[in-house]
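Support request, please re-run this one:
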Amino acid sequence: MNLQVLVPPVVGPVTLIETKVFLQLDSAHEDALVADLIGAGTELVEQLTGRALIVRSLRQTITVWPDKGIFVLQSRPLLQLTKIQYRDAAGILSTIDAADYYVDPNRSRVIALSSFTQFSFTHPSEALLFDFDAGYGVDETFVPASLRMALLLVIRDLYEHRGEHGGVLPLRAQALLAPFMEARL
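Re-run finished. Output below.
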């Protein structure tokens, strides 16, 4: 599986100003560093939780037919599935009819119905392409407060421990992120 960002978010889940207030920084001297830490912290929180904090358009490529025809999308929360396309061995794209599948937005998955053709994926270029939008909303006001606070705690930890190797998330950040993380077997 491969996940590609088609349209990235326009803003971040926390602003530079609120992050500087949280870090108790008064000058603009380290604005570039803080902006980079916001980006790094956001990537870390999104990777750990499997959630997009701010809305973006994504494409997930699948080259293996899943068990029971249930396709799990790699980013949550799922706002909408735009389309599913099948790319054949010649590279020709065909759109799958929406009547052939069921979208379960609560669990970010797509369930193939009996009318959905089960592709064999015998050629390396064959794939199903899922285009969808995921995220809480278009700006930071839509992101749950506990995720925003966890992100600020991660950013503060990154700021205070620059250059140190190996790190563990702050315990408060771990506690705030726990409800958003899926149990893995």
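The beta strands are 2-7, 56-62, 70-72, 78-87, 93-95, 101-104, 109-112, 127-134. The two ends are 19 Å apart (CA to CA).
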